[in-house]
Design a protein that fits this description.
By secondary structure, the protein is mainly alpha-helical. The protein has one domain. The protein has 6 helices and 3 strands. Strands 1-3-2 form a 3-stranded antiparallel sheet. The two termini are 14 Å apart. The relative contact order is 0.26.
Length: 152
């Protein structure tokens, strides 16, 4: 997670219009798929499955991220960017398995996921990509600060 800080710029939330990452403009039911793929695309390397799941949860439910060491200003900007539809109602059941079955995501013996072939057919532009990039930057920063693999 630490190497992510060097290759993934933190999105400038000051420049985002209010509600820019407000949520579902994609087909209902595909939100969880878009979120998980956005997380893996932003990470751009094999990612621990538990870290990917945690990041996806923060993307889907932004209010959960505010307890992860954000300053008051960061909290305000993050929630402003994600409003009015702060939480995304996702059906996570079977999402990783479907992505693996289609070859869009690969898993390995080390409990990591990485992008497979053809994942580009799933559109994650907009709020999924934006939220995922910000969440991963915060998780990476917290990992560096705490020296732990897990977010606090």
């Amino acid at each position: 997670m630490r190497e992510l800080i060097e290759r993934l710029p933190v999105p400038d939330l000051d420049r985002l219009p209010s509600g820019e990452w407000s949520g579902p403009s994609i087909t209902y039911g595909s939100e969880a798929t878009a979120i998980l793929l956005a997380v893996l695309r932003a990470y751009a390397a094999p990612m621990d499955q538990n870290q990917a799941r945690l990041a996806a949860l923060y993307v889907a439910e932004p209010e959960r991220l505010v307890s992860q060491g954000l300053s008051q200003r960061e909290k305000d900007l993050w929630l402003r960017a994600c409003r009015p539809n702060v939480a995304v109602n996702c059906n996570w059941l079977g999402v990783p398995q479907r992505l693996i079955a289609r070859g869009y995501v690969r898993d390995d013996l080390y409990d990591t996921w990485h992008l497979g072939e053809g994942h580009e057919v799933i559109d994650t532009r907009g709020w999924p990509d934006g939220r995922a990039q910000y969440v991963l930057c915060i998780m990476a920063r917290n990992t560096t600060t705490t020296g732990s693999k897990e977010t606090p």
